[in-house]
Amino acid sequence: AVVSTQSTGRWLRHDAKRAQHTYELLSLVRLPLLSKEFIVDIVESDPLIKCDVQCKDLLIEAMRYHLIPERQHTEEYTQNDRTKRRCPGATEVIIVVGGYFKTEAQENKKK
């Protein structure tokens, strides 16, 4: 989830027009399952999240999940897509999507 959160942030910041998709993408990240330190130190301070009310709601949900750990096994959290356990025996898969850009040094080599 840390990698997906960081990748989402980089993708959103690459082009200002992408900021409109912040909530849509962040809602797919399982924020409550990130460490509380990462949530407070990295996610909470992100300007894209700070200026979006819906993103703040996701942040509050993640913080509440850590604030009262005894509630983590209640229906409120076990039925939530961002906090419920994945199917037992499910295979973990990491999908990497990216691009390639040439550096100035690579451009100069061609000349």
Please characterize this protein's 3D structure:
By secondary structure, the protein is mainly α. The protein is built from seven helices and no strands. Helix 3 (36-43) packs antiparallel against helix 5 (53-67). The protein is elongated.
Name a few traits of the molecule.
single chain; 111 residues; mainly alpha
Total beta strand runs: 0
Biggest sheet descriptor: none
Based on CA atoms alone, the radius of gyration comes out at 17 Å
| Overall morphology | elongated
Helix content: 40-55%
The helix-strand sequence is HHHHHHH
What is the terminal separation in angstroms?
42 Å
Would you tell me the structural class of the helices and strands? mainly alpha
Overall pLDDT metric:
81
Number of helices: 7
Strand content: under 5%
Low-confidence stretches: none
What's the layout of helices and strands?
Elements: H1 2-14, H2 22-26, H3 36-43, H4 47-50, H5 53-67, H6 75-78, H7 104-110
Helix pairs in contact: 3-5
